[in-house]
Amino acid sequence: MKTISNLFIFLFLPTLSCFGQKRAMDYGIEFQAYPTGLIPGLRFEKSFSQRDLYTARLGYQIIDHRNLGEHNKETGYGWGGTVGYKHYFGKYFRGANLGVRTDLWRNSIDWESQLDGSVIKGNSSIRVVQPTIEFGWALLFGENTVFTPTAAFGFEINVRTVGEKTGEGPVILAGFTLVHRYRRH
After folding, report:
1. Hey, where are the domains in the chain?
2. What b-and-e string marks burial along 100-125, b requiring 16 or more CB atoms within 10 Å of the CB?
3. 25-183 has which fold?
4. Contact 94/138 with Cβ under 8 angstroms?
5. What is the C-alpha to C-alpha distance for residues 178 and 150, in angstroms, rounded to an integer?
């Protein structure tokens, strides 16, 4: 438990230290889809310049690797979080942006394999690290509502597995964020 607490402090302390600055803070929802799953989540962003933000997400992953993993069928779920950095090419957090982020997931995968006519079933507990690069385009609606369609590419890396190995590798994600922007001048 101490390791998790230290990791949280290490990853989120830079974000929390920025709250005294008079910049923008976004909070809202995020959704991503990839060929073998869905990720709804809550997203938080805090600026540290007129073009740069720290990002964080708390998410839930719904997984269906089908037969694209190590077994004939792999389905599951998991909780996780994200920390990252986003840069806007235009000032005041509008238009094109590029970000890098790292997800940490704790997934449970139910798998099924067929071997010599018999079916073998099991469950694997997986810890996943997923570094990703993300491109988005922020659209401002009214004073404080921001809708950003996104496309991302990364790698799903199973760093700890209890049970049989399950699918991992490159991942392409498409999604959006819908956030409320709070500005302090």
Report:
1. 25-183
2. bbebbbebbbbbebeeeeeeeeeebe
3. Porin (2.40.160)
4. yes
5. 11
Sequence letter at residue 175? G
pTM for the whole structure: 0.82
Write the single-letter amino acid at 165.
K
> Would you say 15 and 23 are in contact if contact means Cβ atoms under 8 Å apart?
no
**The predicted structure's pLDDT at residue 94:** 86
DSSP bridge partners of 65:
none
**Residue 142, burial from CB neighbour count under 10 angstroms (0-12, 13-18, 19+):** exposed
- 19 burial type by CB count under 10 A (0-12 exposed, 13-18 middle, 19+ buried): exposed
Q: Please report the pLDDT score of residue 62 as a whole number.
A: 97
Strand-pairing partners, residue 100, are 85, 133
